[in-house]
């Protein structure tokens, strides 16, 4: 079982070992206790904050130690512990905790969120194939929310973008755009999609797509209200127009060079 195998990876300094935390009557009580310990870190800074977070990490670890097969409760404790490990700069233990969240979290939000976090750990370590695998796994989870799925599409696209795998990046961003939860998100996704298309040597398709999306959202941007302000800012921040123009100039220069070479011949 993953949980028993990973307990050593979740270890904390000896003075904060879960075994020194008393076992409470129920798994829920143990989790509630851990949440109360976590609250003690609020408002702390520096070494005091680090110590408070480690105490909370140990308290969540006690849930895993005493109640390893409590499903959603174990999954939440593992996920919260993973967040603390990540914050404290411990990617290995964080990954182990998130794996427990995935294992125990079937049917809960912690399974897809755990997979996203595992993907982020691999991505930050430049382990791109593993990151892509973890993000793709989110899309296969029935309990994944639309937010989870869109986050997965976004990061799949960004990894492919970093790898200069333009068609794969554009496809992921298009899937994100097609399922966007609002016009601001649509603009963000389409902007990246069009950047990938332009970088891949298809500025014509990129321009058509960008014009299509902007025509769709510009009437909404002209309306009053905070959402319209956010939408206007999203449009202003778009990098696709510059990327498309650069790609068009590059294509025109290549065409001119080819024509000149043919004339000389």
Task: Give a structural overview.
With 265 residues, this protein is mainly α. The protein has 2 domains: 1-144, Alpha Horseshoe (Serine Threonine Protein Phosphatase 5, Tetratricopeptide repeat), CATH 1.25.40; 146-256, Serine Threonine Protein Phosphatase 5, Tetratricopeptide repeat (Alpha Horseshoe), CATH 1.25.40. Helices cover 74% and strands 0% of the residues. The chain contains 13 helices and no strands. The protein has helices at residues 2-6, 27-39, 46-66, 72-87, 91-104, 110-124, 128-138, 146-162, 166-178, 183-199, 203-221, 226-236, 240-264. It is elongated. 40% of the residues are buried.
Write a compact overview of the structure shown:
The chain has 265 residues and is mainly α. The chain has helices at 2-6, 27-39, 46-66, 72-87, 91-104, 110-124, 128-138, 146-162, 166-178, 183-199, 203-221, 226-236, 240-264.
């Amino acid at each position: 079982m993953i949980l028993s195998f990973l307990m050593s990876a979740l270890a904390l300094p000896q003075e904060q070992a879960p075994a020194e935390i008393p076992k409470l009557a129920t798994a829920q009580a143990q989790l509630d206790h851990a949440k109360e310990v976590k609250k003690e870190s609020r408002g702390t800074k520096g070494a005091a904050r680090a110590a408070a977070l480690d105490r909370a990490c140990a308290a969540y670890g006690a849930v895993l130690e005493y109640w390893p097969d409590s499903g959603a409760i174990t999954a939440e404790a593992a996920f919260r512990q993973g967040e603390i490990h990540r914050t404290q700069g411990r990617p290995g233990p964080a990954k182990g905790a998130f794996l427990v969240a995935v294992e125990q979290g079937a049917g809960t939000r912690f399974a897809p969120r755990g997979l996203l976090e595992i993907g982020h750990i691999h991505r930050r370590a430049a382990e791109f194939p593993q990151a892509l695998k973890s993000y793709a796994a989110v899309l296969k989870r029935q309990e994944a929310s639309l937010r989870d799925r869109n986050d997965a599409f976004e990061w799949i696209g960004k990894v492919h973008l970093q790898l200069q795998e333009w068609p794969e990046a554009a496809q992921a961003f298009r899937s994100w755009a097609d399922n966007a939860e609002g016009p601001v998100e649509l603009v963000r996704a389409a902007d990246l999609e069009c950047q990938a298309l332009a970088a891949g040597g298809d500025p014509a398709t990129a321009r058509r797509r960008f014009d299509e999306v902007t025509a769709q959202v510009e009437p909404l941007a002209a309306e009053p209200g905070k959402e319209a302000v956010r939408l206007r800012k999203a449009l202003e921040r778009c990098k696709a127009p510059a990327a498309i123009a650069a790609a068009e100039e590059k294509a025109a220069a290549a065409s001119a060079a080819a024509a000149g070479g043919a004339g000389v011949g």
